TrEMBL record:
It comes from Thermococcus pacificus. The chain crosses the membrane at residues 48-68, 80-100, 106-125, 146-167, 173-193, 230-255, 267-289, 296-315, 321-347, 368-385, 391-408. Residues 213-418 form the Major facilitator superfamily (MFS) profile domain. This is Transporter. InterPro entries: MFS, MFS_dom, MFS_trans_sf. Keywords: Membrane, Transmembrane, Transmembrane helix. It comes from the Archaea. One of its GO terms (molecular function) is transmembrane transporter activity. Gene3D superfamilies: MFS general substrate transporter like domains (1.20.1250.20).
């Protein structure tokens, strides 16, 4: 596969795409829970609807990532998926706002959310695969840092804008939805027309779908990494999905619709702060990955992310909430920037660089399984605990701590550090 070293044009194009996709996911994280709270007070029902993201993400990226590896098209292997997915995701964001304003029943609103999840996951694996397709192994940490920076900047932009508009106009203002749709369309069109994919490699021995799935379980380092990622993303999703319930419980003692409405603007600002912290942690995380070591950089990020969650059980004030999320965000940024290049490096090690789409599809699926589990299990735990959302903090910290020994035992990742 032909490469031209570190191509800033390609990396910035992917960063713009990541920025727009993050706006789409942030719109979901920032507005879906408060809007669903107008339909039901059950944490389990809301969590199960939001868990549709995980169910769709578990199926779509691995399958479409697999087929994009072998796609023969003059438009490229990845770009057709990126353009179609971006256009559909833009349409979906407008449908969500329209459905809510029209007062559709709960099942109808849930379907519009599912359409957004499907649209964004339509090109998830292809977006991820383009980075190792175009960047050499020794420079992927830097590329990951830049892309992660812009991805979380997209979150920051949407959460900051959303917090301002909710405080001024209420949670049903069209501004965040319309602007997200615009960015999703522009970014997908830009990558399709301006980013040139490298020549597709000749695949002499293509893996069958069965062999592809089997290889995940027979190559131990892939299995260890994917398992660890499930654990730390589940920890993240416990907080991300139920943040408004957590805030309402800590500050007001219960997560009623009235209390959730009272903390919606604050929650968006908190998410913005978290993303500022992620930006602070992401660039050093990518640098440390390339210069200091793969395993150590991931473990340091994970520990910094877990410690504020252990403290979360004892938090009672707004100031403590802001401080905990600030520290957790720095750790999360370092963890994500350091873990993103791992799949590409393992593919290089095992001489499977032609298969970036399918293996990054599984990479994304292991981020979707936690959404599915966190939404359903987390909601059930909260309901069984009598609406005590605070219980999600220590459970999340334990999940991260369990993941760290798996990373440390990755032998092939250790070899790549020499």
């Amino acid at each position: 596969m032909e490469r031209k070293g570190f191509n800033w044009g390609v990396v910035l194009g992917l960063a713009l795409l990541g920025f727009s996709r993050s706006m789409g996911w942030a719109l979901n994280k920032g507005f879906s829970f408060p809007l669903l709270s107008d339909y039901t007070t059950s944490a389990f029902v809301k969590g199960s609807i939001l868990a549709l993201e995980g169910f769709i993400g578990l199926l779509v990226p691995p399958l479409l990532g697999y087929y994009s590896d072998t796609l023969k098209s003059r438009h490229g292997r990845r770009r057709p998926f990126i353009f179609i997915g971006g256009v559909l995701a833009a349409l979906a964001t407008l449908m969500i706002w329209t459905a809510y304003r029209m007062g559709v029943p709960l099942w109808g609103f849930a379907l519009t959310l599912a359409f957004l999840y499907f649209s964004l996951h339509l090109y998830t694996a292809q977006f991820r695969a383009l980075m190792p397709d175009t960047v050499e192994s020794g420079q992927r940490g830097k590329a990951s840092g830049v892309i992660t920076l812009l991805e979380w900047a997209g979150n920051l932009f949407l959460f900051g804008l959303g917090g301002f508009l909710v405080a001024k106009y209420g949670k049903d203002h069209i501004g965040p939805f319309g602007l997200t749709a615009l960015f999703l369309f522009i970014a997908a069109a830009f990558v399709y027309y301006k980013v040139r994919e490298p020549d597709a490699p000749e695949i002499e021995e293509n893996e069958s779908l069965t062999e592809y799935v089997k290889s995940i379980f027979t190559m131990r380092d892939f299995l260890k990494f994917y398992t660890a990622q499930i654990l730390w993303w589940m920890s993240f999703e416990f907080i991300a999905i139920f943040l408004y319930g957590i805030l309402a419980f800590i500050l007001y003692g219960s997560a009623t619709q009235e209390n959730i409405d009272a903390v919606t603007s604050m929650g968006l600002y908190l998410m913005a702060l978290f993303n500022v912290a992620v930006l602070l942690g992401s660039l050093p995380g990518g640098y440390i990955y390339d210069k200091v070591g793969r395993r150590l950089s991931i473990i340091l990020g994970g520990l910094i992310f877990a410690l504020p969650q252990l403290w979360g059980w004892f938090i009672h004030t707004e100031a403590q909430i802001y401080a905990a999320l600030l520290v957790a965000g720095i750790g999360w940024g370092a963890l994500i920037a350091a873990s993103y290049p791992v799949v590409g490096d393992l593919l290089t090690k095992f001489e499977k660089e032609a298969f970036t789409g399918r293996y990054y599809g599984v990479y994304e699926a292991t981020k979707s399984i936690p959404v599915l589990l966190a939404g359903t299990i987390g909601g059930a735990i909260v309901d069984l605990a009598g609406g005590n959302y605070r219980i999600l903090f220590p459970i999340g910290a334990v999940l991260v701590l369990i993941a760290m020994p798996l990373i440390w035992s990755m032998k092939e990742l250790e070899v790549s550090e020499k």
